[in-house]
Design goal:
alpha+beta, about 160 residues
Length: about 160
Amino acid sequence: MKSIYAVIIVLLVANLVATVWFGVTSQPVTSTQNKVENTLPSHMTKNVRNKIYDQFVSRYNSRDYEAMYDIFSPSAKAQIDKNETFSTFLQLVDYFDSIVEGGYSHAEHLGTQGDLKQFKLFYSVKFSENSKFGTSGSLSITLAIRNDEYEVWGFNLRST
């Protein structure tokens, strides 16, 4: 059980490092501004959100750790150790086995710096019966979005 906490902590720290590294700032906003900022850009359509999810799940379920690592943007890769990341992937597969079902839930705006916006996409997922931590959980994927392009900065997989 302590190992799962270590995995979650490593992923959260990697996400925090990326956030601090890129200097994402949060400013007080009115509720109208908050609603507008929490809205994903129009190019982040249902198809794009599903593509991001499908890329992660197919690589995760096939245990293709190299391809999983390649999901990360170059700036994210500069912040994380490849071997340590592979070790984390192995632990996640050991804990959760595979993802058998899932879908987009919502997004959360994490901050803005200039024209760069950071969002976290949330997906509800179901794990296989071989999961050591139950069969339901969540996957969150942190994105940096600039203009019509996005980069993956991190992800978090947990049981609920």
